[in-house]
Every structure is written in C-alpha cells, then in structure tokens.
Amino acid sequence: MRIFGIEYAPLLVPLERRKQTWAVFVWIGSFFFMGPIGIFGLLYMFFFTRFYFIPLLYLAWYIADIKTPETGGRRWTWVQKWSMWKDYASYFPVKLVKEAELDPKFNYFIGSHPHGILCSGAFCNFATEGTNVSQVFPGITFTLTTLNCQFVMPFYREFFMTSGAVTASKKSIDYVLGSSRGGKAVVLVVGGAPESLNTHPNLDNITLILKPRKDYPNMPYFLSAHLVPSFSFGENEVYDQVDNPHGSRLRRFQDYLQKMIGLAPVIIKGRGIFQYSFGIIPYRRPITTVVGKAIHVERTGNPTEEEVNELHSKYMEELRALFDRHKNKYYPSHIKLNII
C-alpha cells in the first residue's frame, strides 16, 4: 500500500515476519542508539537526580574494564543462543555454508569478505548462533574482531562483548590465539571501514581492499594459525547507499571523517519497521556466507618478506577461486571480483 509516495507494509503481516523485523531492529538499534542513550541517561542521572552515584560507579567500572575488549572480551554463550538471533538470520535470510571441516586441533585466522555496510552476515554467522555455527563447525570457537571504537560507547560495549567480539588489534588476536593449542578461530573483516564506502548493490564488479593488508597473512606465522578465506554473497545488497563516487565532494568528506574517527560515515538507505521506503533497517535480501578450505601455515617467529608475500598471494588466489566456484549460485554470471 502506497500513500503519498511511501510504501507501507500490509496490516496483516504474519507474526513470524514481525519477529524477524524486530530482531533486526534490535541489532541495528543497539548499534546506532544504545551508546548515545546510555551517555544521555548517565548525564541526566548525575546532574538531575539523586542517583548521581550510579554514573560514578559505572565510570569506575568502565575504567577498570577498559582493557577487556583486547584481553579476550566477555563472551556470554547464553546471549549468543538467544532465539532472537534465529529470527535475525531468517529475516534476510542468512545462511552458512562450509566447503571443508576445520580440525579443532588447529587455530584459524578467517578473512571475512566483503565488508558491506555493517557486516550483517559476519555478525550473524560468527558472533551468534543464528545459523548454528557451533554445529556446522564442531569444536571451534569463533571470535569476531572489529574496530576499537566499537567498544567505546557505554552499555553498547557491554552488549557487544557478550557476542564474544574483541578489538581487531594484534595484541587482542594474540591473546585469543596465542594461548590456545587449537579450536579457536578469529574472524577479521579485512576490508574495514574504507571498503564499506565502496559498497553499493548490484554492481558489475565487487571491490575488495586486500592488497595493502600485508599484516593480515603475516600474523599466522607468529600465532600458529591457518588462514581461511570466506565470502558472504549478498552482503553488499542488503543496504543501498547514497552515490559517492571517488573524487566527489561527498566522498572526500567521508574519507576525511573515516580517517579522523575510524568509522566510515556511510549514508545508508534502508527501510523502516512499518514501511519500505526509508529507514535504517536492511532490506530482506539473502546473504550466504561460504567458508573455504584452510591454507596451512607453518609457525615461524621471523617470516621473511618473501614468505609473507607468497602467503598473501596464495590467500588472494584461494579467495578468488572460492568466489568463482560459488558466484553463479548467488549472482549473475557477469559479476566479477576486483581485489585492490
């Protein structure tokens, strides 16, 4: 039903679909609103109520807990198993496909591509049990890594850490993998914030930022972890983004802000809860994450530049091969992968 140019959802939407939309709204709402609401609430209690001691206690807790996101985080398995995440996965839907088993005797360093706008597939598959990742890969504990700034906002940082997420720093990754003999998998969305600015649906070329990331294949040498490529088909399609071609005034401003704050200031175009014309909720478009075969890496404390370059090239070849093996199932045949 369309009124004044706005397309509204039908009145008689099945309850199951309402639950799915609500689950996605909780996820995206926590990202955008939980931190600012937490700051406002703490300031209000401190200045305008007799409960001023609550913000002071939280501040003391925050300072004492500041290093937790880079020292293993605070995983709450029962939160990862919330039924809400099943609804979240069913909304798009998100699916998880494996090409090969991951042996729990080893640790793994998984590259997640593409970044998309908000890593919807990576979050669902590796930070929750929405797609039953612990059953798909028995004996493997997945840890999603992300930017330090994701752990700054009050309350949101606590909520996000329950998913098992940690900072995407060498110290943090070493903490997770360095002390484990096997059964751990760190997931890094390699393209980061710059790649999200290139995210637009239905492009003929999917662009990944990977060639400059020589530090990525360097780490497994030190941490005794095998490299694993993964690709989320459909990740770039769940949001539209305002046109921002390279060289445009908007893109220059976005690039400047991204370097300043770490996060990419994308201007997303999604849908709402009760209408489909605008909003921050992603569209119902399928995401299928395919996890490829492990590239075995022998641990060495001092890899040569030649060894790092060779592993980097091999990883890009395996990632491209994984994309080519599966793209015709999820994309038109003319879609190509562009690695820069």
List its traits:
13 strands, single chain, lipid biosynthesis, 12 helices, two-stranded antiparallel sheet, 7-stranded mixed beta sheet, 340 residues, 41% helix, alpha/beta, globular
What's the quick description here?
The chain is 41% helix and 16% strand.
**How far do the termini sit from each other?**
43 Å
Give the overall shape.
globular
- Fraction in beta strands: 15-25%
**Mean residue pLDDT:** 92
The proportion of residues forming helix, as a percent range, comes to 40-55%
What order do the strands of the largest sheet run in, or round the barrel if closed? 3-12-9-4-7-5-6
Report on this structure.
It is found in: Endoplasmic reticulum membrane. This is Acyltransferase. The chain is of the alpha/beta class and 340 residues long. It has one domain. Helices cover 41% and strands 16% of the residues. It contains 12 helices and 13 strands. A 7-stranded mixed sheet has the order 3-12-9-4-7-5-6, sandwiched between helices. A two-stranded antiparallel ribbon has the order 1-2. Helix 1 crosses helix 4. The chain is globular, with a radius of gyration of 21 Å. The model has no long low-confidence stretch (mean pLDDT 92).
